[in-house]
Amino acid sequence: MPAPAVLRVVVLISGGGSNLAALLEAADDPQYPARVVAVGADRLADGFTHAEERSIPTFSVPFAADTDRDEWGAALLEQIEFWRPGLVVLSGFMRLLPPAVVHALAPNLINTHPAYLPEFPGAHAVRDALAAGVSQTGATVMVVDDGVDTGPVIVQERVPVRPGDDHGALHERIKAVERRLLIDTVRNIALGAVRLSAISARSPARPQP
Ligand code: GRF
């Protein structure tokens, strides 16, 4: 019997890539049904080291002040498509993808976010949750659409805010949950237990009234 196909994953990062590192560790298990085939970034990201340790190829398509966004997106898309991924994961990728890139990869494009969407979208979710004084925030994995953290939710989980939490402590606690949700989600997509085409047909998450 032929071995089942393994899901080919490209991960995009911008920073330290601790969530990427967790996914790579999970994929070190030969039983895990997905493989990270390349890691890309919008800069020379520190997190590339996690890929390099495993001889996984990396690519960067830098974005500077005078960069044309659409040209940048096209160059990034070319690099991504070279690896023929079945799934692209934004894991701490801190730049909005142009709509043409989103449409080319949809629905096989997911993102992790350090809040319980639709609460606290955007680049400062942990800071915003602390500033709002909420008693709980969360972590979300969602399908990417054209908006800022507006895509349909695949899975999410609450994370308590503890008295005395600062940004670092709270973000670390959220990231521990993000990692688990990401690893489970990629596994479920690979096994066909999560179907992104069905999820992406759903309405985007909306704020509670
Ligand atoms: C994660 O919380 C991600 O959701 C957010 O940035 C963080 C990335 O952390 N957008 P790392 O680079 O994986 O350590």
What does this protein structure show overall?
The protein is an alpha/beta fold and 209 residues long. Helices cover 35% and strands 21% of the residues. The protein is built from seven helices and seven strands; from the N terminus they run βαβαβαβαβαββαα. Strands 3-2-1-4-5-6-7 form a seven-stranded mixed beta sheet, sandwiched between helices. Strand 4 (87-90), helix 4 and strand 5 form a beta-alpha-beta unit. Helix 1 packs parallel to helix 6. The protein is globular. It starts with 6 loop residues before the first strand and ends in a 9-residue tail after the last helix. The site of 5-O-phosphono-beta-D-ribofuranosylamine has 15 residues, from helix 1, strand 5 and helix 6.
Brief rundown of the structure:
This protein is an alpha/beta fold.
Q: What is the mean predicted local confidence, pLDDT?
A: 94
Oligomer: single chain
Helix percentage range: 25-40%
Bound compounds: 5-O-phosphono-beta-D-ribofuranosylamine
Secondary-structure-derived class: alpha/beta
Question: Based on CA inertia axes, which overall geometry fits?
Answer: globular
Strand order of the largest sheet: 3-2-1-4-5-6-7
Radius of gyration: 17 Å
Which regions contain 5 or more consecutive residues with pLDDT less than 50? none
Number of strands: 7
Helix tally equals 7
- Portion of residues in beta strands equals 15-25%
Main beta sheet: 7 strands, mixed
End-to-end C-alpha gap: 53 Å
